[in-house]
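Exercise 7. Predict the joint structure of the components listed below.
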Amino acid sequence: MAVATREQAPAAADRGVWSWITTVDHKRIGIMYAVAAFIFFLVGGFEALLIRTQLAGPNGTVLSAEAYNQIFTMHGLTMVFAVIMPIAAAFQNYFVPLQIGARDVAFPRINAFAFWLFFFSALFLYTSFLFGGAPDGAWVGYAPLSTQLTEYVRMDYYSVGAQLLGVASLAGSINFIATIFTMRAPGMSLMRMPVFVWMTVVTSFLLILSLPVIGVGLWQLLFDRNFGTLFYAAQAQGDPLLWQHLFWIFGHPEVYVLILPAMGIVSEILPVMSRKPLFGYAFVVFSGIAIGFLGFGVWAHHMFTAGLGPVAEAGFGLATMLIAIPTGVKIFNWIGTTWGGRLKLTTPMLFSLGFISMFVIGGLSGVTHSIVPADTQQHDSYYIVAHFHYVLFGGAVLGYMAGAYYWFPKWTGKMLSETIGKWHFWITLIGFNLTFAPQHILGLDGMPRRTYRYDAGLGWDGWNLMSTIGSYLIAVGVLVFIWNIIRSWRNGEPAGNDPWDGRTLEWTTSSPPPVHNFDEVPVVHHVDDFWYRKYGIDEDGRAVKMPEVSGGALTVDTDTGGEDGDADAHDIHMPSPSYFPIIASAGVVILGAGLVFISSGAIGFGLLALGAIVSLWGFMGWAGEPITKEAH
Amino acid sequence: MATATHAHPTAKTYWLIALFLGIVTAIEVTVPYIDALDPIRAVLLILLGSAKFAVVVAVFMHLRYDLKAYRFYFLIGLAGATVVFAVVLASFRAF
Amino acid sequence: MVSEGAVVDHDFEDTGNPIHRVRKTAMWAFLGSEAFFFGAMISTFLLYRNTIGDGPGAEIFNIPFTSASSFVLLMSSLTMVLADNSFQKGDQRQGRVWLIGTALLGTTFLAGQIFEFTEFVHEGLTISTSPFGSSFYMLTGFHGLHVAVGVLLLSMLVFFSLRGRYSPDGGMNVELVALYWHFVDIVWIVIFTVVYLLQI
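Solution:
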C-alpha cells in the first residue's frame, strides 16, 4: 500500500499475519507491545505464584534452591524488562503521535525494529530454560557471584539478554525524542503538550542516558566470564563494587522509567474524570523533569551497605530525601485536581486513585531508605521487596491498568465492562495489599529476601501465608481482567470517538483511528485543546457545553471514521510496510545467542556467523529501501 | 538546500581549523617532554584537549551554527556523564 | 517520515528541511547517549590505570606512534567535513573523493591500532594481564569498532552515490554520517589525552 487514502486504506493486504509482521504503523506496533507485555505479565506472574507457593509455609518443598534462584531472577527480569517497560512503550507508541497530532512516529521502521528486538530478546531470554539454565544471580547480577563460572551459561544469558533488551529500548527512546521534539501539530508548543507526552520525554532521556552505562557493565561481565578480563576479579585487584555503580547508575533512573509513564497516564485520567483541568500543569511537568534529573543522583542509596564512606553516604542520603519533594508536588497536584471536581468514579478513575494511594505508601517507605542507618537494617530484607512492589505494582501496574481501561475504547472501539472492571479493581487492590503489606513486617522481623526457605518458629509463618493468599487473589484479579477483555472485545458497548468526554487530541479521531490518524492535522490553541473546542465559559466562569460540536474549525471526525467518510480527504503518504526490521532484529538476537555460547566453540561461532549474515541482510536491505514505495 | 541558508563556514575555514588541530596536537605531544612544564602538565593537557574537542564540535559538527536544541541533546549527555562519573571516581578515591 | 503540516517547533528557531531536523535530532540524542557509553569505559580505565599487577603499565605506550595515528584521525575529520560541504553544494563527484579519503584515513587509523595492539601483546599486555589491560583494550577496542562502523557507513555512501541512488532526503545521509564520524573523532581526542598523554 503506497498511498493511504481514506478510500483505499483497509485493503485486503492490511489483514493477516504478514501485515502485522511487516507493519510500521505506530498503532499496530503499540498493540503488539501491549499483547507481548501482557503475555510476559502472565509468565512473570506464574513465576511469582511459584515463589509464593514455595514460601507459603516454613521449609517449602515446591522448588529446589537452584530452581528458586532461577525463578526469582527471571521474575525480576521479566517484570522489569518484558512487562512494565514494554507496556509503557505500548501506550507511548499508540498515544504519543495521537496526542501531539502526528501521523506516525519519526522513524517507523526503527520503531518496528525496536519492537521485534524486544520481543525476540525476551523470548531468547526464556530459551535459557531449555539450553543451559536460566540466569540465577538476581536481576541486579552482582559480581563476583555473577562472574563465577559454572557448568552452565546462566549469567551469559543475563548479560546478553539485558543488553539486547536495552538496545531495543534505546532505539525506541530516540524515536520518541525525535518524534516529540520535531513532529508536533501546529500550535502544540512544549507547554501545551499533554503530561503523558512530557513524561515520555523525561523517560526517553532517562533511558538513552542510563542504558549505555549498564551496557558497558554487561559487556564487562560477559568479557570477564568468557575472555579472561579482570574487571570484577578481586583476586587481581579488580573491584566488584564497580559493577554495583554501573548497574545502579542505570538501575535507579530505570525505576523512574517504570513509574513516570504511569504518572503521565494518571495525570491524563484525573482531569477527565474530575471534569477539571489538571491542577498546576506546569508544576506537574517540571516536577517530572526534576525527578528525572535527581533520579541520576541517587543511585548509591542502593549501596549503603557496601562501605562507600560517610561523605558519599550522607550526600546520597540527602539527594534521596530531595527527590521526595518533586514526587510530593505531583501527589498534591493530583489531589488538587480531584478537589471540588464532579468525580466520575469509573474504573480508570478507581485505578488512578488506587495508584495515588498505593504509590504514597511505597514512596514513604522509600523515604525511610534515605536514612542510612535505617537502610542498613532494611537492606536485602523483605522490607525492600515490600517497598518496591508498592511502587512497581501498587504504582506502575495500577497506573497501566488505569491506562488500559481508559484507552481500550480507542484501541478497539468497544468499552471494557465497568461492572467487571470494578470487580477487577477491588480484587486486585485487596489482593495486592494482602500480599505485600505483611512483607514490611517480615522484613523488619529480619526475613532476608531471595531466601528459598525458612525455618518454623521465627514468627514469619503467618505473615508469609497471608502474603501467599494475597498473591493468589491478585491472580484471580488478572483472570477477571482477561474475562473482561474477551467479553468486551466480543460484545462490548460501542465506544464512539470520545467516550470519556476527553480533553486531548486522541479523542478527536475515530475509535480505532484510521491508519493516517487525522484527516486534517489539528491546529492547537490550548492545553486540553479538545476540551476548549467542546466547551465555552459563561460569565460565572462555569464551563458550558457548546451547542454545535461538529461545526466550524473543528476537525472532529463526527462520522464513524474509517474508509467511507467524506470524499474531500486528500492523499496522505504513509510509510510502506517493510520486512527488513524483523529480519535485522532476528539477526541481532542470533548474534547475541552466539555470544552466549562463544565459549562452547563451534556452536557459538556458527551462531555468530549466521547472525552476522542475517543482520547484514536486514540492515543493508533496509538502507537501500525507500520509505514510501511508489504504487505499482 | 535549506540547511545552507544559515552562515555555514566555507572550505577555507575548515582547512584553518584543521591546521589549528594539527598545531595543538603537536604542542600536546611536546608537553610531556618539557620538564619545566611538569607542575602544570595535567592542566595544560586537559585544556589543550578540550580546545580540540570544542573546535571540532562547534565547527566541524556545526553545533555553533545549527539549532540550539541540538546543543541541549548533546550537552545533557556530555555534562551528565562528566558529573556522574566524576562522582563515581571520587567515591573510589581514584583521583 | 514526516507528515505534511506537522513540525514547526515554535520554541526554537526554524531552520532547514524538516526531514533533516528529525534525523539530526535523533542523531544528536544518540551522541548524547554515546557520551555515557564512553564515559563509563573511560571511568573504568581511570579506576584501573594503576592496577597493573605483574604486567606492564602505561610505560609501554609509544607516544610518537599514537600521536601520528591521532593526527590521521583528526585529518579524517577535515576530509569528512569537506565531503559534507561538497554534497551540500550538490557536487557529489568531488564529495565522493573526500568520502573515499575519509574512509582511507579511518582504515589507516585502524591498521595503526592493530599494529599497536600486536606490539603491546608482544610486550606482555593482554586483556587478562591486569584490570589495566582489560580496561585499556575494552575502551580502545570499542572505539576502534566505532571507527570500523564509520568506515562501513562511508563505503555505503560512496556505493549509493556511484549508483545514483544517493538522495539528501534518504536514510543514508552524508550529514548524519559526518556527525557520527566527528563524534568518533572527539572521543579519540579525549582518549588520547586521558589514556595516553596523562598516563606517561
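Discussion. The radius of gyration of chain C is 19 Å.
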